[in-house]
Specification:
The chain is α+β, with helices and mostly antiparallel strands. Helix content is about 30%, strand content about 10%. It folds into two domains: about 70 residues, Winged helix-like DNA-binding domain superfamily/Winged helix DNA-binding domain (Arc Repressor Mutant, subunit A, Orthogonal Bundle); about 130 residues, Arc Repressor Mutant, subunit A (Orthogonal Bundle), CATH 1.10.10. Strand 1 and strand 2 form a beta hairpin. It starts with a helix and ends in a 9-residue tail after the last helix.
């Protein structure tokens, strides 16, 4: 196989593709059988040819694609002044928990965040193509197990879940083992979605403000950290308690001085029906 001809073929296919192309599809471009071991060095050489240009060839979770370099974003935004949709901090927290602790149920997310996770929030992430249901936990009610998709990694510019930033020592929800969950993540999520909007919290939204929805059934979603499946009741923080000010109470009307005529009447009061 001629390397220069192969690079031109790959370049044309990748520039015209609307989605990242995996190696199994790129191999179909050639008449002679080509394996991944032979094709990968050609792709690396093609990426090197584009090193000083406005586009770059990158490998993502779902395949290879050309994309604009981050330095070009300021100029490209002038052609498309519309701002991408932004997500609340609560939505991004939920997405982060799913990414690092997957597979998780809605009840697991609520145990970590300490607040109710609304169904519209989960549906929003599903509609965006960032999470999906990969199964159900064998527990009462069989709650759905959520995990991230390849489209989620593509939108972040990552090739695998191992490239996610490592967690600090505190972990998620105070779990010291949360940073070790990357090795337990499923290796093959669903097919990718399109390029996504910015993952930034919406300004002015409180950290603990969630979408209104009915709370998930905790009985159907036991915490992963509790093997006995017992429900855990989260005690309210002392800071959340509302302190009532002591207000002066006006004297009741019955304690006021009686009328002079009533005071002079020696007969006891009679209850009327």
């Amino acid at each position: 196989m001629n390397i220069q001809d192969a690079k031109r073929v790959l370049e044309a296919a990748l520039l015209c593709a609307r989605e990242p192309l995996p190696l199994r599809e790129l191999k179909l471009l050639f008449d002679d059988p080509v394996d991944a071991v032979t094709l990968r060095p050609v792709l690396d050489a093609l990426a090197e040819d584009w090193a000083d240009r406005g586009l770059e060839l990158v490998e993502l979770a779902s395949g290879w694609r050309f994309q604009s370099r981050p330095a070009m974003r300021l100029h490209l935004d002038r052609l498309n002044p519309e701002k991408p949709p932004r997500y609340t901090r609560a939505t991004l927290e939920t997405l982060a928990i799913i990414a690092y602790r997957q597979p998780v149920t809605r009840g697991d997310i609520e145990d970590i965040r300490g607040v109710t996770v609304g169904a519209p929030m989960i549906k929003q992430l599903e509609d965006r193509g960032w999470i999906e249901v990969i199964g159900h936990r064998e527990a009462p009610g069989r709650p759905a197990l959520f995990a991230t998709t390849r489209g989620f990694l593509d939108d972040l510019g990552l090739a695998s879940l191992a490239e996610l930033p490592p967690l600090d020592g505190s972990g998620l929800g105070g779990d010291p083992n949360a940073g070790q969950t990357l090795s337990l993540l499923p290796p093959d999520p669903v097919l990718p979605e399109g390029a996504g909007p910015e993952l930034r919290p919406t300004p002015g939204v409180e950290d603990r403000q969630d979408d209104p929805a009915e709370p998930a059934d905790r009985a159907t979603a036991p915490n992963l950290a509790r093997p006995d499946g017992a429900d855990e009741v989260v005690a309210p923080s002392p800071d959340d308690a509302v302190t009532a000010d002591v207000l002066p109470v006006a004297a009741p009307a019955a304690s006021q001085a009686p009328d002079a005529e009533v005071a002079a009447d020696p007969r006891p009061p009679t209850e009327t029906t």
